Amino acid sequence: MINLKKISKWYGDFQVLDDCSTQVEKGEVVVVCGPSGSGKSTLIKCVNGLEPFQQGEITVDGVSVGGKDTNLSQLRSRIGMVFQNFELFPHISVVDNIKLAQLKVLGRSDDEAHKNAMRLLDRVGLADQADKHPAQLSGGQQQRVAIARALAMDPIAMLFDEPTSALDPEMINEVLDVMVELAKDGMTMMVVTHEMGFARRVANRVIFMDEGRIEEDCTREEFFNTTRGERAQIFLSKILEH
Amino acid sequence: MFGDFDTGVIFDNLHFLVEGMQTTLVLTLIAIGGGLILGTLLALARLSRFRALSFCAGGYVNFFRSMPLILVIFWFYFLVPHVVGRPVGGFYSVLVAFVMFEAAYYCEIMRAGIQSVRKGQIYAGQALGLSYAQNMRYVVLPQAFRNMVPILMTQAIILFQDTSLVYVVGIKDFLVSADLVANRENRILEMFTTVALVYFVICLSGSLLVKRLQRKFAR
Ligand SMILES: Nc1ncnc2c1ncn2[C@@H]1O[C@H](COP(=O)(O)OP(=O)(O)OP(=O)(O)O)[C@@H](O)[C@H]1O
Ligand SMILES: [Mg+2]
Fold first, then answer.
1. How far apart are the C-alpha atoms of B28 and A204, rounded to whole Å?
2. What spacing in Å lies between the alpha carbon of B92 and ligand 2's midpoint?
3. In this predicted complex, what is the ipTM?
4. Per-residue pLDDT tens for A53-79?
């Protein structure tokens, strides 16, 4: 479904991504972890073309992300994305956040978009918050709305960039629960996170990144049960302490 | 001197004065609306990644911001009839002058407004599949506008005062109307006191509104 072939990217002289290759099959959940500044956000933003890259090729459902003839907006509308800081639109209500792209990108009728939005809000347990503005919700609630907003586009895959790291500890689980459910429903997911509990429960594979390179790319069992490279070992022992 | 301060002259000429105020307000409102639309387009052009476009918009802004408004008014008064090939009357030439002039200022305000919207918001719009234009229209500009409301209002108050310059091309705005009455009735003190009071009350109310909005947005 998602295929990355030898991706390299530079900011000026600084190489953020170095020859990264991996793939995510349909229905697979792949967790990406690694120390701060290792390029995780950059990598996942390359997948839907939010960040350009200079070398290599990424295809999603057979469509080349960097391709000259690719309709990038159309491709993005088929890939859901959830951000660390939620990025709900603060000037419109929760339900309008979920309706906007359905109306403007997919051309759905107001009625259809509304029904779909309410169904998804119900699914993430927030149907009673539909008419509030994002700022009136807690962080955890905002992130669940952001997930509903992405799901409203009926995506073929979902990208998550540290969806719980801006949340207070007591709100992390309400978001992870929604994500676990999604994974169990067979959604194709690429998730940047340090929540190893989440990885243990639903990840098919775990990728470890360091200094712009993919250092480990293995199954969940291999990742948690066998000895890994030294850097990954140190990193993992640090985050598992928490 | 204040002994024979005659307020009657105001009421006798109220209709005439109100007409003058209407001209002032219409001019102000159209200049705000037109200036804001043109200014927003200029701001988008200035922020565009097409060099030529942002260069031209930058040139426009710098040019108008270095010109005294009164010169711009004169200039359009003589230029517009030439361009359209027939006399258009002072009012329309002045409208064009104000819209073009204000656009340069509104451009800079909206540019700062657009830059005040977090990058993540633009990513979020893009990730949903919104086109550049849709992202601007539904995500970025509404937030930019909201962030800039107090400054936009302050600019509008300045504009309201500046419209009095139209006397140079013989438009009967509020000030000119009052001046005509003052000279005709020989009631200079009464009329100019009234004019000052009216401008003061309107601008002060505007400033107070801005303060309130600022407090509201700060929360
Ligand atoms: N626009 C930019 N210009 C220059 N350098 C950048 C830019 N964006 C990111 N970087 C650099 O690229 C590197 C990778 O950034 P990235 O955000 O992908 O890391 P990350 O793994 O997501 O880290 P974190 O866990 O802190 O989110 C960092 O060293 C960062 O400083
Ligand atoms: Mg990151």
1. 64
2. 55
3. 0.92
4. 999 999 999 999 988 889 999 999 999
